[in-house]
Amino acid sequence: MTDRALAVVRAGALTTVQDRGRRGHAHLGVPRSGALDGPAAALANRLAGNGPEAAVLETTLDGCSLRPRSTVTVAVTGAPCPVTVDGRPVPWSAPVRVPAGALLDVGPAVCGVRAYVAVSGGIAVEPVLGSRSTDLLSGLGPAPLTDGAVLPLGAPPAHHARVDTAPQPAPPAELVLRVTLGPRDDWFTRTAIRAFTSRVYHVSPASNRIGLRTTGPALQRARTGELPSEGMVLGAVQVPPDGTPVVFLADHPTTGGYPVIAVVRPTDLPAAAQARPGTPVRFVPVRRR
Questions:
Q1: 3-state per-residue secondary structure call for the chain
Q2: Among 83, 168, 242, 283, whose Cα sits 20 to 30 Å from the Cα of 1?
Q3: pLDDT digits over 58-111, tens only?
């Protein structure tokens, strides 16, 4: 049995393996998936000495506990949280040496939602369609972590990046999403468009990796009936029959029949990964580039 492995002592509410995702398979009905907060995952890999393609763990709200079978370097980024090794506090957002057999505990998020745990060598589960990411919608990739699972690790990097710590943005107190209206904004009344771009929504507890759901003013349609299913992109803001916007995230379906009122700028989506239920959301229209 290889010593390049992690034993999962506490899996947490939802901890998944994620990398940069499986691009280029939407025509097969396969979403991109990948880390919801890509910059935080990339920073964790850099701090741990990994390349940008290495797979990390994405936790949700309450963290996880892991026991490596060999000495590893670990970095935790994303949602700020307490990190301990055998009960001893260690830095968050910095490289930490974890001896073989020691217990690494990533605690509950102090703010934000998702923490990223990078381990030197990366999580080396078998890739599916070129990615190690867990996709909750299609079921591709490894299953979410369970207590007692063992995760293989890749070979440790030959040269560790000389990074001690790095700043990262705080989780949003207010989520501001820049949107380009369309392609189906003509399905809504002018009053609905004004409400969408001027009223405050809030993050719904029903949000997940598939989409950030909102609560707030219902958007009235100008047209009745339903669209034939059409392609959906990352960041599409779809409006289901209840009239409240849903922002599609990494595990979103590749097609859908509800009208898309706007599309969020990709650079604003990492903040959506860290927005807790109840966080105010504003949709700010910008011109097409």
A1: CCCCEEEEEECCCCCEEECCCCCCCHHHCCCCCCCCCHHHHHHHHHHHCCCCCCCEEECCCCCEEEEECCCEEEEEEECCCCEEECCEEECCCCCEEECCCCCEEECCCCCCCCEEEEECCCECCCCECCECCCCCCCCCCCCCCCCCCEEEECCCCCCCCCCCCCCCCCCCCCEEEEEEECCCHHHECHHHHHHHHHCCEEECCCCCCCEEEEECCCCCECCCCCCCCEECCCCEEECCCCCCCEEECCCCCCEECCCEEEEECHHHHHHHHCCCCCCEEEEEECCCC
A2: 83
A3: 999 999 999 999 999 999 999 999 999 999 999 999 999 999 999 999 999 999
Q: Characterize the bridge pairing of strands 230-231 and 236-238.
A: unpaired
Q: How many residues comprise the chain? A: 289
Q: Is the distance from CB of 279 to CB of 203 less than 8 angstroms?
A: yes
Tell me: the pLDDT tens digits for 111-170? 999 999 999 999 999 999 999 999 999 899 999 999 999 999 999 887 665 666 677 888
Question: Is the pTM above the cut of 0.85?
Answer: yes
The string of pLDDT tens digits covering residues 14-59 is 999 999 999 888 888 888 999 999 999 999 999 999 999 999 999 9
Residue 161 is encoded by which pair of tokens?
């990046």
User: With 90 as the cut, is the pLDDT of residue 289 above it?
Assistant: no
**Closest to 33 in 3D by CA, of 41, 81, 276:** 41
Q: How crowded is the C-beta side of 192, counted as CA atoms within 13 Å?
A: 19
Contact 30, 100 (CB under 8 A): no
